[in-house]
Every structure is written in structure tokens, then in C-alpha cells.
Specification:
heterodimer, A: mainly alpha, Formate dehydrogenase/DMSO reductase fold, 0% strand, globular, B: alpha+beta, Alpha-Beta Plaits, two-stranded antiparallel ribbon, 8 helices
């Protein structure tokens, strides 16, 4: 076998070697940025807490109880994090399946974001597992619990991460300068996208279906047999709001990486996305309304939990929906960003209401996450952002692909 | 269509044979499934609150002997160190003791929830937990309508603790330790016999019993059956639960999964092909 299979020499005659990889591992740019000053201590503290968690058990750093066995780490890190990662399947659907060329500049960064979200937030799941060394059991058939929603979610997560990795892999190939791999991997993109959308639709809804058996434990305003559908529909605008939000920040932080053409395209993209958000939010609200009427929930609306529900639905779904509608009529970027942030708050509220706040809302002792659970969650998020930044600064994600990669097409 | 005699006899004969065969197949089923679900009948009118069952249970499963006092109005709960507890309720008919442990549902939510089948309903009836399979996700705890499985939060190698109806003893043909220790408030047997026995007790002494067997229907039927002198809510038995199986709640979703997995990709492929064609035409027109 010679080098022609995986040519290790790229356009710039840069030798692929471990030296190159090591040099890429080194940080680029300034060290003492405000983000680093905040994130480094949190990540170190999180690491210490994780060590304590594995030596002393979950009870040492979490406030989980026998009645509320899933807390912040599942309700926020996994359930909410995955909803926000929904942008990847929506954008790949638009670009690769519907062939909307307009959104092509955001595809890579969205897929990268989705992949890292899955890798980290489901990676955080390992912290929550009491017996993580058995995590491989449902994969190797010890045993296949096929009647379990969680079994399906686990498999769909796992396969989806592979699909996203394939979708993103051409960028890695461009970074390493291996043309052959790039050609093969690019050819797999459409297949991975089709596969990925299917898997996403099922695990986004599956995360809701996890709670179907907790019928009496969840407040009736948030429990219905339609949780899976509601989760799926809301993941569309949750994901797109995240894309808008992340795009806004990336265009500031990584300004010099983005070509002029893509900078100009950005506003058009954001306006297009705001339309989709507005329409899906309308569908979602309508569905919530039907579920509310169907569940005969009028009697609980005039209670503190009822007001909380109304706040979620009106303040963080209805109002941002109006803002999205308004923004694409008036072409106002500020309104879109405001709406995206409100929508994201609404998604956090909704997912936490199902999984934590409305779960055992009637219990004598309520579960409130400990500060240590929050620190670990923040540490996970910061680590993800670090990796994100590392990748953006090295691979052609926001920046243009090298010339040779485009020639191939 | 004309049916002549020959065809008529042929058809009738075929139907007859197939009916007979089907019947004999049907008859064979109970024989091959000789093992019936075992269960426990707990008669709270007979329980004197001696807590011998609690102590025997702790001893049999290597758990610390319960030390806390039993007081009316103070609710004791099962925990990671106690699989079974007795509570004392002040009711309209005076003091009544109630035992609490895993209900061993006919269709357990915990077992349906478990992605590794670490929780499983055995053919003998007990619902058991298997250490070598469990990954500690605690989805069984989320799903169990009775909040039975308990997790050892303060261990680096945590286990799920819950009553296993002394499965190791049941497979050997012995009876669970609580039933063995108890005078006559707890009896062990096949679920069918126990329901018949419970009905008989209610029928013979209608004044002593509330006319309902808790566990006959709740959550689709459970292995533990309760008799009570007073309405069930007075004994802290959860009557808000549905009377159908909990795993059935996820059935619709689970059934939709293979359909979506199979039908969505071709649909997406079709859309992809369609939009691609349009794109090439557009390019040509330009």
C-alpha cells in the first residue's frame, strides 16, 4: 500500500505528520480573554466535582431523591440540549433534501454544533448513570430491551452521532488535506443526511415519549399522550433559534474567518429562518391549545402552576412568534435575535417543566438542583464551547473550503 | 357460484378438521404454560403490626435491621436500606397496619422501561433486578407508578433495591420470607388462587372488609393483593392510578418507530431526487 490511497501531502506541500497535529493542538490567540477567565475555573471545579461523584456516588454532589431520580443533568443537559441541537437536522433537510442553496453557508457550523451538543450532553449522561461501565449493555445485547423507549433513544442517539460525524467529516478531511478521503466522505453526505433526519425525528419525539409512563407524576398541564409530537415540533424552532443565536455570536467572535459574501448572506438566512420559526411556532401553539382543550385542563389554569403554564405559552411562545412574524415583515434583525432568545428561554422552561418542575410538583420535598449540579452543567457547556472554538479556528467551518475541495464538485 | 355436493362436503370437512386442529392447539397452551404468576395476599385486617416481616426481609437480603419507631401518622417509606415497611394508619375503623413493598405488576412499567432488561418480570411472577445488566439510568424509578425502585445514591457501585418476592426462594419452591414469618396476614400462592381467596373472605365477612381488592385491577393488575377494612385511600394506597397497564402508554410511540424508520428515508430520497432534477433544469435554463 502506498501513499496514493490516503495521500498525506496536500496542496501547500504541508507534510501530514504528528508534528502538524501537535502544532494544531496548541491554543491559538489570546489567553486572557474574559471567556477564558470565567470558564477555566468553572471547568476545573467541575472536574473536581466529577471525581467526587465517581468516588462517593451521585448523592455526594446531587440533590436527586428517590421520588425525583432525574434532575438537572437529564432535564437540562440532555433533554434541553438535544432540542437545541435540532437545528442540524432541520438545516440539513433544507440544504441537502430541499436543495435550498441559500442556507449552505450555515450548514457546516450547524452540523458541528449539533454533533458537539450530542457528544457532550449525552456524554454528560455518563455522569448521571449510576453504573456507567454497563452503558454498552444495550448495544451488545445484554440485553436488548426492545420494549423500552430509552433503548430506542439510546440507539437513535448513537447512530445519529455517527451520521452527524459523517456529515461533518469533509471539513476534517479538508483540514488534514486528504483529498481521497474528502471525496469518499463527501459522497456519503446525502445518505447520512437522510439517515440523520429519520433518526432525529424519532429521538426528538422519543425524549418526550420517555415520560409517557410517568402519567400521574407530571403536572396535567404538561403531561399528555402528545408529548412526543410536541417535543418534535418544538425541536424545529428550538434548533433554528439556536442557529440564529449561535450565528449572531459567531459572526462577531470569528469575524475574520467569514468571507464577505457570507457576511452579506447572513441577514437573508436569518430572515428565512425566522419565517420557519414563526410558522412552526404557530403550529406548536395550536397543538398545545388542542391538547389543553382535549385534556379538559380549565380547572387547573387558575392555580400557580396554571399561571406558570400561561407564562410559558404566552411569554415565551406566543410573543416570540409574533416577533418572528413582525421581523420578517419589517426586516429587523434585532427583533429576530430578541425572538430567538425568548424562544430559547421558552424551550428551557418547557423541557424543565416536563422533566423537573412539573415532575412530582405535588411532592412534599421538592427537588432543587444543588450548586454542584449547576457547576458541572456549566463545565460541560464551557468544555463544549472550547472544543467548538478549537475546531472553528482550524477547520474550514465558517471559513471557505480550500480551492481543491470545491474543484472536485 | 354453484356449490355442488362434492365441494360442499370437501369444504365442510376442511372446516371441521381445521376447527378440531385449532381447538387442540388451543388446548395445548395451558399445558405448556403450567407456571402461573405467583403473588401475595396481604390482609390488613389481620396484620398486628409486629414488623417481624420487616426484620426477616432485612435479614434475608443482607440489609440493616430497621430501628425506627412505628407511629400512627408518621409515614415510613421503603428506601435503599429497606425493601418492605409497615405503616400504621388511624382510620375510620381504628388503627390499621399496612405493608408496603414492590407490587410485582403483571405488566411492570419498570421492566418495560428498562433498556437492558435488568428489571424483568419472571415467568414465576416476581419482578426482579439483575445487577450485571443494570446501567443505573434510573428510568425504572421514573416510570414506576408506585415509586418502588430505590437507588443507592451514596455508593460508587450503586444498586437498585426493591422487593424481589424472594425470587431465589420461589424458584426453589419455597415461599418468601415475609409470608413464612407472618402469622396469617400474608399468604403466598398463585395469583388466581389468591384472588379467589380474597373474594371468599369479602363474601363471608362483608362487614369486615371494604369491597375491593387493591391490586386486582390497578396498573393492569399486580402480584400483591391487598384487603382492607376501610376505603383504600385511608390506607395510603394510591387510587389515582389507572387500571390499565402502564407499558401500554408507550405502545403507540414504539409501534410508530419502525414505520417511521422504514417510510421516512424513501420519502426523503424522493424529495431529494425531485429537487435535484429541478435544480439541474434551472441550471440549464439559465
Amino acid at each position: 500500500m502506498n501513499n496514493s490511497v490516503y495521500p498525506m501531502v496536500n496542496e501547500d506541500k504541508r507534510k501530514f505528520s504528528w508534528k502538524f497535529l501537535f502544532s494544531e493542538l496548541k491554543p491559538k490567540g489570546e489567553w486572557l480573554t474574559p471567556f477564558n477567565i470565567i470558564s477555566i475555573p468553572v471547568m476545573l471545579l467541575g472536574l473536581i466535582l466529577i471525581v467526587i461523584r465517581f468516588s462517593e456516588g451521585l448523592g455526594a454532589i446531587t440533590n436527586l431523591t428517590q421520588e425525583v431520580p432525574w434532575g438537572l443533568w437529564i432535564g437540562f443537559d440532555v433533554v434541553t440540549g438535544v432540542a437545541f441541537a435540532g437545528g442540524a437536522y432541520v438545516v440539513t433537510f433544507m440544504v441537502y433534501i430541499l436543495n435550498m442553496k441559500k442556507y449552505h453557508p450555515i450548514v457546516r457550523v450547524t452540523v458541528l454544533n449539533g454533533f458537539l451538543a450530542y457528544a457532550f450532553y449525552t456524554g454528560a449522561l455518563l455522569l448521571d448513570l449510576g453504573r456507567p461501565w454497563n452503558v454498552i449493555n444495550p448495544m451488545i445485547g445484554n440485553n436488548f430491551g426492545t420494549s423500552s423507549v430509552l433503548f430506542l433513544v439510546a440507539w437513535h442517539f448513537f447512530l445519529y452521532m455517527l451520521a452527524e460525524l459523517i456529515e461533518f467529516s469533509p471539513a476534517i478531511a479538508e483540514w488534514l488535506g486528504s483529498r481521497r478521503a474528502h471525496k469518499i466522505l463527501s459522497g456519503m453526505t446525502v445518505g447520512a443526511v437522510i439517515f440523520g433526519i429519520t433518526l432525529s425525528s424519532l429521538h426528538q419525539s422519543g425524549l418526550g415519549a420517555l415520560y409517557l409512563m410517568a402519567k400521574e407524576k407530571i403536572h396535567p398541564l404538561w403531561y399528555s399522550e402528545f408529548i412526543p409530537v410536541l417535543f418534535l415540533v418544538s425541536s424545529i424552532f428550538a434548533g433554528l433559534s439556536m442557529v440564529i443565536f449561535e450565528g449572531t455570536i459567531s459572526h462577531k467572535v470569528f469575524f475574520n474567518q467569514i468571507s464577505k459574501k457570507n457576511h452579506q448572506a447572513q441577514n437573508g438566512i436569518i430572515h428565512g429562518l425566522s419565517k420557519i420559526c414563526a410558522v412552526t411556532m404557530f403550529a406548536y401553539l395550536f397543538l398545545q391549545f388542542l391538547v389543553f382543550i382535549h385534556g379538559k385542563n380549565w380547572n387547573v389554569i387558575n392555580t400557580p402552576m396554571g399561571y406558570w403554564f400561561l407564562l410559558e405559552m404566552i411569554g415565551f411562545v406566543f410573543i416570540p412568534m409574533i416577533l418572528f412574524f413582525y421581523s420578517y415583515r419589517t426586516v429587523n434583525i434585532f427583533t429576530v435575535r430578541l425572538a430567538a432568545i425568548l424562544t430559547m428561554i421558552g424551550i428551557v422552561l418547557n423541557r424543565l417543566n416536563v422533566t423537573v418542575i412539573g415532575f412530582r410538583w405535588d411532592a412534599a420535598i421538592r427537588y432543587v438542583p444543588s450548586w454542584m449540579e449547576i457547576v458541572v452543567t456549566l463545565a460541560v457547556i464551557f468544555t463544549e464551547i472550547w472544543i467548538f472554538r478549537w475546531v472553528i479556528n482550524r477547520m474550514p467551518v465558517l471559513s471557505e473550503s480550500p480551492a481543491w475541495a470545491n474543484e472536485e464538485k | 357460484m354453484r356449490i355442488d355436493r362434492r365441494i360442499f362436503f370437501k369444504t365442510a370437512g376442511l372446516i371441521g378438521v381445521s376447527l378440531a386442529v385449532a381447538k387442540s392447539f388451543g388446548a395445548a397452551v395451558p399445558e405448556s404454560n403450567e407456571i402461573e404468576f405467583r403473588g401475595m395476599l396481604y390482609d390488613s385486617t389481620r396484620c398486628i403490626g409486629c414488623r417481624a416481616c420487616e426484620k426477616a426481609c432485612a435479614k434475608a437480603h443482607g440489609l440493616p435491621e430497621p430501628q425506627d419507631e412505628l407511629k400512627a401518622g408518621v409515614l415510613r417509606k421503603t428506601s435503599e436500606t429497606q425493601r418492605s415497611v409497615i405503616n400504621n394508619y388511624e382510620t375510620s375503623k381504628g388503627e390499621v397496619f399496612v405493608k408496603n413493598q414492590c407490587m410485582h405488576c403483571n405488566e411492570p412499567a419498570c421492566a418495560a422501561a428498562c433498556l437492558t432488561e435488568a428489571m424483568c418480570k419472571t415467568k414465576e411472577g416476581p419482578v426482579i433486578w439483575r445487577e450485571d445488566k443494570c446501567m443505573g439510568c434510573r428510568y425504572c424509578m421514573v416510570s414506576c407508578p408506585f415509586d418502588v425502585p430505590k437507588f443507592e445514591y451514596h455508593s460508587a457501585n450503586p444498586k437498585i433495591q426493591k422487593c424481589d418476592m424472594c425470587y431465589d426462594r420461589v424458584v426453589k419452591g419455597e415461599i418468601p420470607v415475609c409470608a413464612e414469618t407472618c402469622g396469617d396476614a400474608i399468604i403466598f400462592g398463585t395469583r388466581r388462587e389468591l384472588i379467589a381467596e380474597a373474594r371468599k373472605r369479602i363474601a363471608e365477612n362483608p362487614n369486615d372488609y371494604f369491597d375491593q381488592i387493591y391490586g386486582e385491577d390497578v396498573a393492569g393488575g399486580t402480584g400483591w393483593l391487598y384487603l382492607s377494612p376501610v376505603p383504600l385511600e385511608e390506607l395510603g394506597l394510591n387510587t389515582r392510578l389507572q387500571n390499565t397497564s402502564y407499558p401500554a402508554l408507550t405502545k403507540g410511540f414504539l409501534y410508530s418507530v419502525p414505520s417511521v424508520d422504514v417510510l421516512l428515508p424513501p420519502l426523503l430520497l424522493g424529495i431529494y431526487a425531485a429537487t435535484k432534477d429541478k435544480q439541474t433544469k434551472d441550471d440549464e435554463n439559465e
